[in-house]
Structure formats: structure tokens, C-alpha cells
Design a protein that fits this description.
It is globular, with a radius of gyration of 18 Å. Helix content is 35%, strand content 25%. The protein contains 8 helices and 14 strands. The chain folds into 2 domains: 103 residues, Homing endonucleases (Endonuclease I-creI, Roll), CATH 3.10.28; 88 residues, Endonuclease I-creI, CATH 3.10.28. The chain is an alpha+beta fold.
Length: 226
């Protein structure tokens, strides 16, 4: 039987590829269901171009073309935003994840996330996508605003069980997000630091190599967040 979807043969997926895919789905990526199977779609701003190309290299066997640049003019801000994006070809594995992570058009947190989110690499990719550190303390956060309070609770339980972290759920203007307090800063940083790209190191409140905490600087952090 020919298992080809389009021009992509349904070859085995490595553990590393699965961990990266899962991290980016928890973060900014989107799964889109086509006629028979789903595909992965992702994009990041111009400042994170190198991060997009890192993902492309890691998932290259699923793609047909390199990342492309898109420009979007915001009428309200009167500003042009640049983004780099790529899409994969369809694959049965993406279909399996789409069934777990989507309810209609809404991305959800699967009830079985505790058995999926077990790798520090997945946590690191999720953090590179959607995380940051506070500029008034050494706590870090994961922007989980699109998820419900109960879904945030499920994620918090998963992080506690699998990584011995103790997240809190904070309400901000647009929804709930996970906050990992300062007392877990060293533990969290040690978990993800080996997998973070150099351009993302500024997000860490603690450097496990130099065993030093980052200097708190609100002005600098505002610049890095742009």
C-alpha cells in the first residue's frame, strides 16, 4: 500500500522531531486539517527569523519549500509587520495531533497532556515560542491566554508532575497565563538552557553556566520583547 500523501511519504518520526513539533503546537504553531490529513503551519517575526530557520532545518523532511517572508500593513498602527513562515506537507502524525489539540477551530489542551509533555526539549521550544521572564523579579511566564482556566490548571499539574515545577495561574488583561515563580527560576533555567538558541537566552532569569541571575532592567526587556 502506498502511504504517500502528496509527495510526502509517511516515514517514521524521530523522538526529537516529535518533541519539537509538540513544543511548537503548544506555542505559536497551528495545525490545519486538509482533505485527508493535517499539516503544521508556523511563523515568527523578523527578529526571530533565525528561530524560524532552525525549526525549518529540524523539520525539513516534512516541508517542500523554505520559509518565506510576509508583510502585513496594520491600518490602525500605520505600521508594516514582517513575518517569516513555512508550512509542512500533510502527515498522519499531524492528523493525530490535530484530533488531540483541536475542538472545532479552537486549540485546546488534551486531557492526556501529562503523557505527552515529558521532554525538556518540548518545554524549551514552548518557552521560546510563548515564554518570557518578568522584569521586576526572576519569575518566568508562559503565554497561555488562548486556553481556559481549567486547561491552564491541567498544564500546571503537568509541569508539577513531570518537571517538579510549581506554576501559578495568573489573570492578566486578555486571559490566564502560567507563571513560574522566582523560587523555581534556577530549576526551570537548568531544564531548558541546553536547548535554547543563543538568540533566546535573554529570556532566562538565571544562567546555569555562570550560575548568575540576570540583572533586572525594565527598559532592556521592553526592547528585547519587540
Amino acid at each position: 500500500m502506498d502511504n504517500t500523501v502528496g509527495s510526502l511519504r509517511q516515514s517514521a518520526i524521530s523522538s526529537r522531531e516529535k518533541e519539537i513539533i509538540l513544543g511548537t503546537i503548544l506555542g505559536d504553531a497551528h495545525l490545519s486539517m486538509l482533505k485527508f490529513n493535517a499539516r503544521l503551519e508556523l511563523g515568527h517575526s523578523e527578529t526571530q527569523k533565525a528561530y524560524v530557520f532552525w525549526k525549518y532545518q529540524e523539520l525539513k523532511k516534512f516541508t517542500g519549500t523554505k520559509p518565506v517572508q510576509f508583510e502585513n500593513f496594520d491600518q490602525r498602527a500605520q505600521k508594516t509587520y514582517v513575518q517569516w513562515r513555512f508550512k509542512t506537507k500533510t502527515h498522519t502524525y499531524f492528523t493525530e495531533l490535530w484530533k488531540l489539540f483541536y475542538k472545532g477551530k479552537r486549540k485546546i489542551v488534551p486531557s492526556k497532556i501529562v503523557s505527552l509533555l515529558t521532554s525538556p526539549l518540548t518545554l524549551a521550544v514552548w518557552y521560546m515560542d510563548d515564554g518570557g521572564r518578568r522584569n521586576d523579579c526572576y519569575g518566568v511566564f508562559l503565554n497561555t491566554l488562548s486556553f481556559t482556566k481549567r486547561e491552564n490548571e491541567i498544564l500546571a499539574e503537568c509541569l508539577q508532575r513531570n518537571f517538579s515545577l510549581n506554576p501559578r495561574i495568573h489573570w492578566i488583561q486578555d486571559g490566564y497565563r502560567l507563571y513560574i515563580p522566582s523560587r523555581d527560576a534556577q530549576k526551570f533555567s537548568a531544564l531548558v538552557d541546553p536547548y535554547l538558541l543563543d538568540l533566546m537566552k535573554y529570556k532566562l532569569p538565571y544562567n546555569p553556566v555562570t550560575t548568575s541571575f540576570a540583572r533586572l532592567n525594565r527598559a532592556r526587556d521592553r526592547v528585547n520583547a519587540l
